[in-house]
């Protein structure tokens, strides 16, 4: 195996791990809330969990599918934030999982040349690698917001890492 394929495989493996890890945490958060709570807003200037899921789907599609595959960019970003109802928890979760799976399929198929090609997305100029870094960090950012809002609603820890010793130190090389 050459270094390029090793690098690509490691990059893709870690991108997929982070996408799946965010989905895992969102599933745990969703299990704690009611249908009504999905559309509640902490205050008028913040977004509901439903809005955040729609926003994640739009962002993942724009950065992870359209920019990498060359597919049409049909995102209507304002609708992600103005929607106030109409989708159930499971529908939102299904939409997010489908979008993540489509992003993963796109990443698997994208060429190395496209990963280093500069593409404009939302007025920013980044390579395909830059766009994948953005979509992972953006997904994590909003996953944290969802977790925080659910913790506030329920006054309890969500136990994302209850079976992991997070105090474990790195092994010395």
Key descriptive features of the protein:
64% helix; DUF1572 domain-containing protein; mainly alpha; DUF1572; Four Helix Bundle (Hemerythrin (Met), subunit A); 6 helices; 173 residues; DinB/YfiT-like; two-stranded antiparallel ribbon
Strand order of the biggest β-sheet: 1-2
Per CATH, which architecture? Up-down Bundle
CATH third-level topology:
Four Helix Bundle (Hemerythrin (Met), subunit A)
Order of SSEs, N→C? HHHHHEEH
> Quick one: biggest sheet?
2 strands, antiparallel
Counting structural domains, the number is 1
Organism: Leeuwenhoekiella palythoae
Pfam family, one: DUF1572
Protein name: DUF1572 domain-containing protein
InterPro entries: DinB/YfiT-like, DUF1572
Short description:
Helix content is 64%, strand content 5%.
What does this structure look like?
The chain is mostly helical and 173 residues long. It has one domain: Up-down Bundle (Four Helix Bundle (Hemerythrin (Met), subunit A)). The protein is 64% helix and 5% strand. It has helices at residues 3-32, 49-69, 77-82, 89-109, 112-116, 128-154, and strands at residues 118-121, 124-127. The chain has a two-stranded antiparallel sheet with strand order 1-2. Helix 1 runs antiparallel to helix 4 (89-109), helix 2 (49-69) packs parallel to helix 4 and helix 2 runs antiparallel to helix 6. The longest helix has 30 residues, at 3-32.
């Amino acid at each position: 195996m050459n270094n390029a394929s090793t690098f690509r495989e490691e990059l893709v493996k870690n991108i997929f791990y982070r996408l799946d890890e965010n989905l895992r945490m969102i599933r745990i958060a969703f299990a704690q809330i009611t249908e009504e709570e999905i559309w509640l807003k902490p205050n008028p200037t913040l977004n509901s969990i439903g809005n955040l899921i729609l926003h994640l789907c739009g962002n993942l599609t724009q950065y992870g599918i359209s920019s990498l595959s060359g597919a049409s960019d049909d995102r209507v970003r304002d609708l992600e934030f103005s929607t106030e109802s109409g989708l159930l928890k499971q529908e939102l979760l299904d939409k997010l999982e489908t979008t993540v799976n489509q992003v993963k399929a796109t990443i698997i198929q994208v060429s190395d040349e496209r990963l280093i090609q500069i593409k404009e997305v939302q007025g920013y100029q980044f390579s395909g690698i830059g766009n994948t870094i953005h979509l992972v960090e953006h997904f994590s950012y909003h996953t944290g917001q969802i977790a925080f809002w659910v913790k506030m609603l329920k006054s309890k820890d969500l136990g994302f890492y209850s079976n992991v010793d997070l105090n474990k130190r790195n092994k010395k090389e």
